[in-house]
Amino acid sequence: MLWVNLIMDTFASLALATEKPTESLLLRKPYGRNKPLISHTMMKNILGQAFYQLVVIFTLVFTGEKLFDIDSGRNAPLHSPPSKHYTIVFNTFVLMQLCNEINARKVHGERNVFEGVFSNAIFCAITDGTLLVQLVIVEVGGKPFSCTELTVEQWLWSLFLGIGTLLWGQLITTIPNSYLKFLTELGHGRPKEEILEAELAEGAGEIDHAERELHRGQILWFRGINRIRAQSRVDGECISYFLLRGLRKTTNTKFSSQLKKI
């Protein structure tokens, strides 16, 4: 799990964050502040790739032993040695993530996902390093990584299914966004016109949440000012009281002194 999380999160984000800006990206108009963080194309790729990977993983988990003519890992005892069945599942999943990193380089519907890939040395180094470490984990990792050695044929099938994410990504790109209208609801929400109509239908007496927060802030502000004024008034009265008291004591002391002199 640690290795998978490193591939899918840390290494992938580091590799993709080092992509150099392209000319088309610099010429693209900025998004509005009301635009969703995930665009229609990104949502289409996420859902499409999730569908492909789930189909592949479930197929390997439940029918992999029949496809590769190996022992099933599902029926293995608790402390049994690592099985080829689950090693193939793990290896295929990692290779799919590795190939999907190349798809993630282009998020605006571009066809050529390999464009400029060799100009980013960090991306190439991370990709090659991940593939090399995965090879070592599968072939040498053994019981600590719950893996066992795979044959060349099994490696080729895992690599073929991993490369399938690239081919599947091209198929997803072919689908126009206009055909997936349900993604509009997931990505944008209701238009402003519908929101205004809904608010008017609820009644003119309803106060918008932002307006309610504004009124609440104004009330707290006025309460604070009134408290400051009241405290200032109390402090002023206390100061006046002590001044008068001190003045009376001084006056009484002087009057007593004069009486004694008389």
From TrEMBL:
Keyword Metal-binding: yes
Gene3D superfamilies for the chain: Calcium-transporting ATPase, transmembrane domain
One GO BP annotation of this record: regulation of cytosolic calcium ion concentration
Cellular component terms (Gene Ontology): plasma membrane
Residue ranges annotated for the Cation-transporting P-type ATPase C-terminal domain, each copy included: 1-172
Keywords recorded for this protein, A-Z: Magnesium, Metal-binding, Signal
Recorded superkingdom: Eukaryota
Keyword flag Signal: yes
Signal sequence segment: 1-17
Protein name (Swiss-Prot/TrEMBL): Plasma membrane calcium-transporting ATPase 1
Organism of derivation: Chelonia mydas (Green sea-turtle)
